[in-house]
Amino acid sequence: MSERITVILADDEPPARLRMRSLLAAEPDIEIVAECESGSRALERVRILRPKLLLLDVRMPELDGFGLLRLLETTERPPAIVFVTAHDAYAVRAFEEAAIDYLLKPYTDERFAEAIARARRSIAGGDAGRRAIERLLAAGRRTERIDPIACRTREGVHLVDPREIDWIASDGNYALLHVGPATLRVREAFSELCERVAAAGVVRIHRTYAVNRDRVFRIEPWGSGEYLLVLRDGTKIQSSRRYGDAVRAIAR
Predict the structure, then answer these.
(1) What stretch of H or E contains 39?
(2) 13 lies in the same domain as 120
(3) Could you identify which of 19, 76, 225, 246 might form a hypothetical disulfide with 72, taking C-beta atoms 3.0 to 4.6 angstroms apart as the criterion?
(4) Whole domain around residue 129: which residue ranges?
């Protein structure tokens, strides 16, 4: 009898979870132990239930798929992680995060079955190469250092992980950090701050604006080498011609 494989489905769209659930029903060794509509809920369930397989969307409310993986310790990560998403721009990053497969919606029944078969091999120990890559990547994450930004508020000092920033605006001798629904003010020169958070994926696109490349949903040409960047929360920011190369690099 084959080993039982526990699975968590993390996708904010009910039809997407329903499709995965119906396809997994044909797999006798698969047991779905949780379905999650948000990244934060999925993080909680993974830590408690320790599934062997995580089927994970990239973009979810509260915490995206990559944010979820970043918050998991190496020992907490499921042996097999498969991204299931409608966005093709994150495949390279997904494999850097040690995912074993990347399913693009809409996918066929056959393609889904192939991903599950690959997960079985990984869980059974047949994917030694992937595990070696994961160990190396985990070691790299441990040595990487991205310092938090200290923002003084009425309640005290708020420490912001630069990777959680959506976008930044210059405000004289200060900079305004937009982090989800919050706007935090930090006393630091905008140009210096942009250099400090570049390693976290924050890209300067204007003399007074910078964006987190992972929050960019759409880029629209605006004429004369300028672009309009639409973020996932609907925020629209116009780049300047001087930073056109930086914007085009985001799209690659």
Answers:
(1) helix 39-49
(2) yes
(3) 76
(4) 5-143
As a whole number of angstroms, the distance between CA 137 and CA 150 comes to 28
CA distance 221 to 134: 38
Mean pLDDT of 237-241: 94
67, with CB counted inside 10 A (0-12, 13-18, 19+), is middle
For residues 118 and 215, state if they share a domain.
no
What mean pLDDT do residues 89-111 have?
85
| Dihedral sign (CA 109, 110, 114, 115) | negative
Residue 79 burial by CB count (10 A; 0-12/13-18/19+): exposed, middle or buried?
Answer: buried
Beta bridge partner(s), residue 149: 160
- DSSP reduced 3-state for 10: strand
- My answer on whether 194 and 129 are in the same domain is no
Residue range 2-28: mean pLDDT, rounded: 93
Alpha helices of 61-189 — where are they, by DSSP H?
65-71, 91-96, 109-124, 128-143
Q: What is the mean pLDDT of the chain?
A: 87
User: What is the pTM assigned to this prediction?
Assistant: 0.52
Note whether 4 and 53 are within 8 A (CB): no
Residue indicated by tokens 């960019």: 216
Q: Is the pLDDT of residue 128 over 70?
A: no
